[in-house]
Specification:
Rossmann fold; 15 strands
C-alpha cells in the first residue's frame, strides 16, 4: 500500500500561517500528541479530503498543502486522483454520519450476498452523482458570489420612500413608508419596469426637480406688477420740445444775466399784480405803471405756461424714475426650481436695461429743470436727449417675460389631484428605473436566473440518481449484520441493550438506523455516549463492502473526547484490538491519559520498530504562527508523568531557550504546581496547597520567601481552576514571566534537591 511519510507544507487557512514537519518519517503506527489548538484537527481534515476525493468542507477554498508518501508527493490538486486510501474519524465524521439530534445514523452497507452487477451499477451511479454534485456546488458558489437581487429591491424601495419625504405624498397610502421591496417587484413582474423600457422612464433632472417641488406644495402663487412706462416715450417728445422752444419777450438786460435776481423779480411781479398793489412791498414807494408794464412784457403768459409744462414733465419723469428704481421683484426662491434660473437671467437683463433708461430720464429731467425759469432768456435752449428706444423696448419685454413666468409658475401650482397623482407616478417610475439600472439589477437577475435554471436541472438529475442509488443500496443483503456488530461494540462500553441501533424503513426500499435506549427512541445522549456510538459506527463502517483494512490509512482525531476514564480505557483496548492490522494508523490526541496508554502500546517490543511518536505545537515568532510536528521529546516519551516535560517547558521559557506563548504560561505553571504539591504534600485541592503556602511562606520573616508565597498564593487562588491546556486560564500577558519565575522559585525553595535534579535534566536538554 501507499503509506504517508510526512506533511511538508500547509498554508491558506486562518488557524496558522505555516507548517513544518521536522520529525522522522511516519511509520505504520503513529501517535501525535499536543495541546488543543496545536493543529491536529487540520491534519485530520486534510487527510479526510483523500477519503472523499474532494475538498468537501467549507472554509478550505484557499488551502494548499504537500504530502510526502512512499510513492510520490501529492498536493491539494491531487485529492481526487491520488492513490491514497484513507478513513478518518473526527468531529466532522460524527457530525456528518450520526445525526444525534434526530436519533438516527446513516445506513451502513456491509457486503454479503449481492449481485456483482448491482455493485457495478452502484459504483457508476456514485461517480455520476459526485460529478453532478460537484457541478451543482460550483454553480452554487457562483450564485453566492452574486449580489442578492432581493437586497437591491429592498434598497430601491427605501429610495422611493426617501424621494417622497417632505412632500404631500409622504404619508400617502401608496408612496408612504409602506412602500417596500414587494411594490418594486410588482412593477417588474407586471412589466411596468423592464430592462427594455427602463431608460425611457428616466426623467431629465429639471423635470424631476419640478415634479418633486410640485409634490412638496411649499411654493405659493407669485403676484408681480411691473411699472407703467407707457408715457415715457411721450414725455421724452414733450420734454425735448420744451428744451427747444424759443419765446420772444422784451429784453431786460439787468435780469438776463442774474438768475437769482430774475427769479426774485418774477415772484415780486406776480405778488404785486395778483394783489393789485400800488406801492412796493419792499421799499414802500409808489410803483410806476411803466415798471409793471415793462415786467408784463418780460414775464409773459407763454413764459409762465412753458415753465409750468417743464415742471409737469420733470415731475412725471421723476415719478417714473422712482417707480423704476423702487420696483419690487419676487425672490428667486419663490419660483419653482425649473423656473428660477430663467427668472434670475431676466432680472439681470432688466437691471442692465433699467440703468440705461434711468440715465436717459435723469439727463432729460436735469436739463429741463436747468431751463425752467430761463425759457425767455436768449440762448437758454437745451440740447435734446435721445429716447433710449432699444433699451426701453428690451425693458418692457423683460417685464412682460417675468409676468409670463409668474403666470407659468402659478399655473403649475394649480395642478389638480389627478394630474398630481400622474406626476407622482412618473417620479416613482423614474426612481425605480434609475436605481435598478445603476445597481445592474436586470443584469444580475438574468445571470442568477440562468444559474438557477441550471441548478434546478442538476438538482432534478441528482434527485433521480440519488433515488436510484438509494434503491440499489437498500437492495444489498445482510443489513442486520451491521446493526448487530455496532450494538455488540456499544454493549462493550455501556452494557447489553443500554444503547442500540435499530434498522427502520424511512421510505420505499430505503433504510436508516435509529438510536434507542432500552428499546425506546433516545432523545438525548451524554457526550460520552455520543462518542461511543460514533466510534462504534466508524469501526463497523470500516468493514463495509470490500474494505481492506490492511491497505488503508486509519486516522483517529481525539477518539476519546468527552469520555470519562472508564470509557477511555475501554476505547483504548478496542482500538488496539480492531486497528492493530491497519495498513497505517494515526492517532491524534490532546488527552494525556490516552497518550500514556497508546505510548506504552507503541513503545512495547512488538510495535517499537514500526512506531513513531510525535509532539505537535503551534509556536509564534513575531507575527507568524507556525505549527511544528517533531519527534516526541524524551521527557514525554520516557516518563509516565508529564510533570518533567512541563517543568522543562517552564524552565526553558524562563531561560529564553524555548519560549511558550504567554497565554500558555499560567496553564503550564498551574499544572506543574499541581504535580509538585501532589507528590510533595499529597495535596488534593488548591485549598490544601493555599494553606501550606500561607503557613510556610506568607508568614515567613524572610522577605523573598514571603514575596514568592504571596505571588503563588495569588496565582493559586485566581488562576488554578482550569483543567485543559487548550482552554487557557485568563492571565494578562504581562504577568506570564512573573508567574513562571515565582512558580519555579517556589519549587526550588521547597525542595532544593528535587529542583536541582530537574534543573540538571533541563540544562542538558537546552544545551
Amino acid at each position: 500500500m501507499n503509506r504517508l511519510q510526512s506533511i511538508t507544507a500547509i498554508s491558506g487557512i486562518r488557524a496558522f500561517d505555516s507548517f513544518e514537519w521536522v520529525g522522522a518519517p511516519a511509520k505504520k503506527y503513529n501517535l501525535i500528541y499536543g495541546w488543543n489548538g496545536a493543529g491536529k484537527s487540520t491534519i485530520a481534515r486534510i487527510l479526510s479530503f483523500f477519503e472523499h476525493r474532494r475538498v468537501h468542507l467549507d472554509g478550505f477554498d484557499d488551502l494548499k498543502f504537500k504530502l510526502k508518501t512512499e510513492r510520490a508527493v501529492v498536493t491539494e490538486r491531487d485529492v481526487a486522483s491520488a492513490r491514497l486510501n484513507v478513513k478518518v474519524f473526527n468531529a466532522d465524521f460524527v457530525r456528518t454520519n450520526v445525526l444525534f439530534d434526530a436519533s438516527e445514523a446513516n445506513p451502513i452497507v456491509i457486503v454479503g450476498k449481492k449481485s456483482i452487477v448491482l455493485d457495478k451499477e452502484i459504483r457508476d451511479l456514485e461517480k455520476s452523482l459526485a460529478d453532478l454534485v460537484a457541478e451543482r456546488d460550483k454553480l452554487g458558489k457562483q450564485r453566492r458570489n452574486h449580489r442578492d437581487p432581493n437586497n437591491i429591491l429592498k434598497e430601491c424601495g427605501k429610495t422611493v420612500v426617501h424621494e417622497f419625504l417632505e412632500t404631500s405624498f409622504a404619508k400617502h397610502q401608496y408612496y408612504g413608508r409602506s412602500y417596500n421591496r414587494s411594490r418594486v417587484k410588482k412593477l417588474i413582474d407586471d412589466g411596468t419596469v423592464t430592462a427594455e423600457n427602463a431608460d425611457s422612464l428616466l426623467l431629465e433632472e429639471p423635470d424631476r426637480t419640478r415634479i418633486r417641488e410640485q409634490l412638496q406644495a411649499r411654493h405659493q402663487e407669485i403676484a408681480f406688477r411691473s411699472p407703467n412706462l407707457e408715457r415715457l416715450e411721450q414725455l421724452f417728445e414733450e420734454g425735448n420740445r420744451l428744451l427747444r422752444r424759443v419765446i420772444a419777450v422784451a429784453a431786460l438786460e439787468r435780469l438776463e444775466s442774474d438768475d437769482e435776481v430774475r427769479s426774485w423779480v418774477k415772484e415780486g411781479y406776480r405778488l404785486h399784480t395778483e394783489r393789485g398793489a400800488t406801492k412796493c412791498y419792499f421799499c414802500t414807494n409808489a410803483i410806476a405803471p411803466t415798471v409793471l408794464a415793462e415786467y408784463a412784457g418780460y414775464f409773459t403768459d407763454e413764459v409762465t405756461k412753458t415753465e409750468e409744462a417743464i415742471g409737469r414733465i420733470s415731475d412725471e419723469l421723476k415719478k417714473l424714475e422712482e417707480a423704476l428704481r423702487g420696483q419690487q421683484y419676487p425672490d428667486s426662491g419663490q419660483f419653482l426650481t425649473s423656473l428660477a434660473a430663467k427668472y434670475m437671467e431676466l432680472r439681470n437683463e432688466i437691471k442692465l436695461h433699467s440703468i440705461h433708461v434711468l440715465e436717459a430720464c435723469e439727463t432729460l429731467r436735469k436739463r429741463l429743470e436747468t431751463r425752467r425759469g430761463r425759457v425767455h432768456v436768449p440762448g437758454s435752449e437745451g440740447e435734446e436727449v435721445p429716447f433710449p428706444e432699444k433699451q426701453f423696448s428690451a425693458l418692457k419685454a423683460g417685464f412682460r417675460a417675468i409676468d409670463e413666468l409668474c403666470s407659468e409658475h402659478n399655473e403649475l401650482l394649480k395642478m389638480g389631484k389627478e394630474k398630481l397623482e400622474k406626476e407622482a407616478r412618473r417620479l416613482e417610475l423614474h426612481v425605480v428605473a434609475d436605481f435598478l439600472l445603476k445597481d445592474d439589477y436586470f443584469k444580475i437577475k438574468a445571470e442568477l436566473d440562468a444559474i438557477d435554471k441550471e441548478i434546478a436541472a442538476l438538482e432534478k438529475e441528482i434527485e433521480e440518481v440519488n433515488n436510484k442509488l438509494q434503491e440499489k443500496r437498500s437492495a444489498l443483503e445482510d443489513m442486520s449484520m451491521a446493526v448487530d456488530e455496532i450494538n455488540n461494540l456499544i454493549a462493550e462500553f455501556l452494557g447489553p441493550g443500554e444503547i442500540e441501533l435499530t434498522a427502520v424503513p424511512s421510505g420505499p426500499k430505503l433504510w436508516r438506523y435509529r438510536i434507542t435506549r432500552r428499546g425506546t427512541p433516545a432523545s438525548y445522549l451524554s457526550e460520552g455516549e455520543k462518542s461511543v456510538v460514533a466510534l462504534a459506527y466508524f469501526l463497523v463502517k470500516l468493514r463495509e463492502k470490500d474494505f481492506d483494512l490492511e491497505q488503508t490509512i486509519i486516522v483517529l482525531d481525539d477518539p476519546v473526547d468527552s469520555q470519562d476514564s472508564i470509557f477511555l480505557f475501554r476505547t483504548y483496548g478496542l482500538l488496539k484490538r480492531l486497528l492493530g492490522k491497519a495498513g497505517q494508523l494515526f492517532i491524534l490526541t490532546h488527552n494525556y491519559e490516552l497518550f500514556n496508554l497508546v505510548r506504552d502500546w507503541l513503545c512495547s517490543d512488538k510495535f517499537k520498530e514500526d512506531s513513531s511518536l510525535y509532539w505537535i505545537e503551534k509556536k509564534r515568532t513575531a507575527d507568524k504562527r507556525t505549527v511544528i510536528v517533531q519527534d516526541m521529546p524524551a521527557l514525554l516519551r520516557d516518563y509516565k508523568s508529564e510533570y518533567q516535560y512541563l517543568f522543562y517547558r517552564l524552565y526553558a521559557h524562563q531561560k529564553k531557550a524555548d519560549n511558550l506563548e504567554e497565554p500558555l504560561v499560567p496553564n503550564v505553571a498551574r499544572k506543574v504546581l499541581e504535580y509538585f504539591a501532589s507528590f510533595k504534600w499529597s495535596c488534593r485541592s488548591s485549598e490544601q496547597l493555599s494553606s501550606i503556602v500561607q503557613s510556610s511562606f506568607v508568614t515567613s520573616e524572610n522577605p523573598r520567601r514571603r514575596a514568592v508565597g504571596d505571588a503563588v498564593l495569588k496565582f493559586v487562588n485566581e488562576y488554578s481552576h482550569g483543567r485543559d491546556f487548550g482552554r487557557p486560564v485568563t492571565s494578562a500577558v504581562a504577568e506570564a514571566d512573573a508567574i513562571c519565575n515565582d512558580v519555579l522559585e517556589f519549587i526550588r525553595m521547597n525542595d532544593r534537591v528535587h529542583y536541582q535534579a530537574l534543573e540538571t535534566i533541563c540544562t542538558k536538554m537546552i544545551q
